[in-house]
Structure formats: C-alpha cells, structure tokens
Amino acid sequence: MNTTNQKLGMGLDSLFGMQKIGQTPTGNIEIDVSYIQVNAKQPRKTFDTEEIMNLAESIRENGILQPILVRKINDNEYEVIAGERRLRAAKLLNMQKIPAIVKNLSEDKAFVASIIENIQRSNLSLIEEAESFLRLQNEFSLTQNEIAKQLGKHRSHVANMLRISNLDGEIKDFIEKNNISYGIIKVIAGRDDVFKLLKLCHQKALTVRQLESFIKKLDNESNNNEKAKINHSQEDLLKLKSLQQEIMQKFDIKISFSQNQQNKSNEDICLSYKNIDTLIKFLENITK
C-alpha cells in the first residue's frame, strides 16, 4: 500500500472507528435491499453499465465479499455511504438482502467518507473529484488545509483541484469527454486561454513537458508584442499632441480623446468649438 492510501486509510479509521476498506469487518448485518437508498450527494456521478454487470456476475459466483457501508436515516431506511456499485449489482441480481455495516455518521462525515472511499478505489473522474473538493469547502466550510488533512493530500493538490472545479462548464465537459490528464490541467487551469490550450493539447496529443515549452514560447512572444505596442502607442501620443496644438492654433478648435464605454478597444473624439462657422471651416479644410 502506498503512502497516499495509508493516509486515506487513517482518515477512514478516524471517521468510522473501523478497519480500513479492503479488510474484512466484523459485526455486519444483512439489510433488505429495498430499505437502502442511494446517496444523492454521492461524488461519483457516472456508473459504467458494463462494469456493474461484470460485478454482478462476480457476486453471483463469489457472493459479496466486502459489505457496503450505510448510515441509518429512519426505521427501515438507510443511505449508502460506500458501496453503491455493489448495491446496484445486487439489485441487478434481484437479491433480497445485502450485507452491510451500519454507522452513526452525520451527513458531512458521510460525504467525506464517500469521497475517501471513491478516491481510494480510484473511482472518481478528475472533474468529479474536483467538484467534491469544492463541495467540502462550500457546504461544510472546510479550509484547504483541513481538506488536505482529511483526504491525505498535499494542500497544493487541493488548491489545484479547486481551481479546476471553478472552470466553465463547457471546459469541464471537454475535459471529461476527452479524458484530459491532471498534469495538463494543472499547468493551464489558471490561464485566460485555457480552452484554446486544451483543444491544442487534445489535437496534437501534447505531453506536459511539450505544453510547458509551448506556453513559455507563447508568453515570450506576447510580452515582446506588448512591449512593441507600448512603444508604438507612445510615439502616436506624441504625434496626436502635436496635431492637437496645431488644430487649436489654426482653427480655434480643441480636440480630446476618451475610451469608448461600449467598446473598450475604440476611442471617442470630442471637438470643442466656439461657433458653427468655426466647425464648418475646420471640416471643409480636412475634406479638401
């Protein structure tokens, strides 16, 4: 077992007061399948039909080796904390009862337990995991440090996951559909051009190192273009100032410039003149 799983195991111990997932627990009971409801807040959103069917076939041959974990809501009413795939497979086999361990857990601890169990089994997609972290922060007011400690993760990983969870829905759908790796997302999640870079990575099958090299080159070119733009703008401002003074002296008209409020990339020109004859003279001169 690697270090991460050991930490997750300790997290489960502290939550459940029981053996780590994967060990055979004692004191489990059998519960009528109809009494058990799925957890609406389950972090895992998608279940592969073929996987459930394969699991059902395994259960038919070997039985359920690891009881599901539930919490009691009311008399004859339970909610799944860990083991929804086993429950779905049992229903597929029309099983009447299923072995389960009942734990007295609050809603927030049950949710954390569900996340830990799914992470430990690598059942969550990248987006599902990221959104679970966001829910821990928003719904249960956990800090990044608290989430990291509870899940056995580095705080930097939690911070990256929260950035991913805040991406636009269209971007998250693209990540899910195309199975974009965590390494790629971590590099670009905070950028304004994240979607453009995601599409590029997918089209060209870029590695993380290739992506980092491309971004470095892209940013260098952008900085050089920005510097050129600043120098050019300063030169234009000097020319404009000279023309303003010339027009003022020749036509007695003051010209000023301001940013267009509807289109920030455009500017408005304001002419200040004493009378209509002055304006006509000026316009006739520039249209010759």
From TrEMBL:
<dbReference type="InterPro" id="IPR036086">
    <property type="entry name" value="ParB/Sulfiredoxin_sf"/>
</dbReference>
<comment type="similarity">
    <text>Belongs to the ParB family.</text>
</comment>
<dbReference type="GO" id="GO:0005694">
    <property type="term" value="C:chromosome"/>
</dbReference>
<keyword id="KW-0238">DNA-binding</keyword>
<keyword id="KW-0159">Chromosome partition</keyword>
<dbReference type="InterPro" id="IPR041468">
    <property type="entry name" value="HTH_ParB/Spo0J"/>
</dbReference>
<comment type="function">
    <text>Involved in chromosome partition. Localize to both poles of the predivisional cell following completion of DNA replication. Binds to the DNA origin of replication.</text>
</comment>
<protein>
    <recommendedName>
        <fullName>Probable chromosome-partitioning protein ParB</fullName>
    </recommendedName>
</protein>
<dbReference type="Pfam" id="PF02195">
    <property type="entry name" value="ParB_N"/>
</dbReference>
<dbReference type="InterPro" id="IPR003115">
    <property type="entry name" value="ParB_N"/>
</dbReference>
<dbReference type="Pfam" id="PF17762">
    <property type="entry name" value="HTH_ParB"/>
</dbReference>
<feature type="domain" description="ParB-like N-terminal">
    <location>
        <begin position="29"/>
        <end position="119"/>
    </location>
</feature>
<dbReference type="InterPro" id="IPR050336">
    <property type="entry name" value="Chromosome_partition/occlusion"/>
</dbReference>
<dbReference type="GO" id="GO:0003677">
    <property type="term" value="F:DNA binding"/>
</dbReference>
<dbReference type="InterPro" id="IPR004437">
    <property type="entry name" value="ParB/RepB/Spo0J"/>
</dbReference>
<dbReference type="GO" id="GO:0007059">
    <property type="term" value="P:chromosome segregation"/>
</dbReference>
